[in-house]
Amino acid sequence: MVAFTVNGKEQNVNVTPDTPILWVLRDHLGLTGTKYGCGIAQCGACTVHLEGQAIRSCVTPISAAAGKKITTIEGLSPDGSHPLQKAWIAVEVPQCGYCQSGQIMSAAALLASNPKPSDADIDSAMSGNICRCGTYNRIRRAIHQAAGNDTQGGAA
Ligand code: FES
Ligand code: FES
């Protein structure tokens, strides 16, 4: 039994301690906003926050979350009004959408630690999140928009 908090709610899950957080979220708690991509910490689709840090939930065992707080895309804001979520809609970032919850969670961790990131800061923070649809330019624009940075140029 491992006890932890997900999106502000206490959870007790009866799994072996080495079970990846991703499977606890998806299979035991029904939080399917977090996606399985590669399973080997290479794509970022499974990104959630553990104590505010962006982590790859596919390779992080639930034992690492004991007594700690996990935040998933479902818990980023109570009503979908996080600045990144608004910007994502305004910029129309997603194509297929599969990678996007992981992208947003990485971006949210970036803005929490660096509220006014430069292009280089964004590229560095987001480099572990792969998008097969190639939405990178729009992701960058949306992060700038959420940060309130002046941005130029049209749709990318
Ligand atoms: S599924 Fe975790 S990084 Fe790809
Ligand atoms: S929007 Fe399709 S993989 Fe990123």
UniProtKB/TrEMBL annotation:
InterPro entries: 2Fe-2S-bd, 2Fe-2S-bd_dom_sf, 2Fe-2S_ferredoxin-like_sf, 2Fe-2S_ferredoxin-type, 2Fe2S_fd_BS, Beta-grasp_dom_sf, Diverse_Oxidoreductases
PROSITE patterns found in the cross-reference section: 2FE2S_FER_1, 2FE2S_FER_2
All copies of domain 2Fe-2S ferredoxin-type, residue ranges: 1-76
Pfam families for the chain: Fer2 (PF00111), Fer2_2 (PF01799)
Keywords annotated in UniProt: 2Fe-2S, Iron, Iron-sulfur, Metal-binding, Oxidoreductase
Keyword match RNA-binding: no
Keyword Metal-binding: yes
Top-level lineage group: Bacteria
Xref: PANTHER family: BLR6218 PROTEIN (PTHR44379:SF2), OXIDOREDUCTASE WITH IRON-SULFUR SUBUNIT (PTHR44379)
Name of the protein: (2Fe-2S)-binding protein
Annotated source species: Thermithiobacillus plumbiphilus
